[in-house]
Amino acid sequence: MKSHVRTLQIAFTYIGTIVGAGFATGQEILKFFTQYGQWAVLTILLSTILFIWLGTKMMIIARRIEAESYEDFNRHLFGEKVGSSISLFTMVILIGVNSIMLAGAGAIFQEHLGLHYQTGLLLTLLGSYFLLKRGISGILQMNSIVVPLMLTLSLIIIFNTFEIPNAGRFLFLDTDSSIFGAWISPLLYTAFNLAMAQAVLVPLARHTDKERALVRGGILGGIGIGFMLLAAHFAMSSQMPGILQFEIPMGSIAFRLGTLVQTVYLLLIFLEIFSTFVADIYGVGEQLKQHLRIAPSLITPLLMLICYLLSQFGFSSLLSVFYPIFGALSLIWAVKLLRTPWSSPPHNKKSSSIHGSGGNKIPNVSPEPVIRFTRK
């Protein structure tokens, strides 16, 4: 039973890390899949396979090399120098994304709860701080609540869409987009999200005792992500092309289902922002602990302070410049992960003496004495 619970926690955390606020609003699905019409179902299937395969592989390798942070993982993929540079750039992106998500949380408090914008920011930071004090267990428990809510909302939207006359359009939707764009899109989507998710999935794998739980969690998580992608595409295809005019496409669908579903949807957007914010802060904090010579308890408040300050000055314009660069880098990262062999499982202490750093086996030395005869 404990093993099954751990598997579900890993799967939920995987889903919750990938499925962020951009997913909940519908913009990501619309941009990467739905706009490609009849190709979308096949590309969602491709993306699902990649999430299952690469996500599981990343967690297993991270556990076998005993990576403490995503920087350790990137060093394993690319080597010391390049891996450290990639991790530094990833950290900048994560902090920038977190500052924007924090601003989004403040906007939700202001626009829908009638509270001051700064109050929303401070409450989000305060809740994140107390949750992060529990470490990885807090992230697991939070996603165990948020993800079932997301899956439930997806099911509600699917059942409602079945009643619409255009429900079957997701299979035959016309598109003017190129086939090349349709098939490169799931690769970019998967690579970008996995490169971001490594911040929490790598330390999660490190703190998981049994590899079997990672395999099962990775498979279930990938399937769950694919299901939610397909559910959102199914719902939005029935509203094409009119849904393109909405800033929050999924919101326009949820709002038609009544006040209760609308309230749950708004709560869900905030919880997804909150869960992604917490996970990214945790991941960046694990990386910084390896470099900063300050008390570990001060790193999380320091990161939150930086995100709070950036949320005041609008980091989005600068991030829009970095995003395409990070997208291309993520594709290279995913290809490298694809080509990297599965590392050998860690050996016990008795056999550790015949292994060098990084788990590379040192050639065995014969126990028999070597006798040399020399001529005087």
Structural class: mainly alpha
Q: What Rg do the Cα atoms give? A: 23 Å
Q: Can you give the helix content as a percent range? A: over 70%
- Please report the first level of CATH classification, the CATH class: Mainly Alpha
Q: On the 0-100 scale, what is the average pLDDT? A: 82
Order of helices and strands: HHHHHHHHHHHHHH
- Gross morphology is globular
Low-confidence stretches: 347-376
Q: Can you say what the CATH homologous superfamily is?
A: Hydantoin permease
Query: How many structural domains does the protein architecture include?
Result: 1
Work out the strand percent.
Answer: under 5%
CATH architecture: Orthogonal Bundle
Quote the CATH topology: Hydantoin permease
Described by strand count, sense and barrel closure, the largest sheet is: none
Q: First CA to last CA: what distance?
A: 73 Å
Quaternary organisation: single chain
The total count of strands amounts to: 0
How are the elements arranged and paired?
Elements: H1 2-18, H2 21-25, H3 27-32, H4 40-64, H5 70-78, H6 80-112, H7 117-132, H8 136-161, H9 179-206, H10 211-237, H11 249-254, H12 259-288, H13 296-313, H14 316-339
Helix pairs in contact: 1-8, 1-9, 1-10, 4-9, 4-10, 5-6, 6-7, 6-12, 6-13, 6-14, 7-12, 7-13, 8-10, 8-12, 9-12, 9-14, 12-13
GO biological process, one term: spore germination
Region (Disordered): 343-376
Protein name: GerAB/ArcD/ProY family transporter
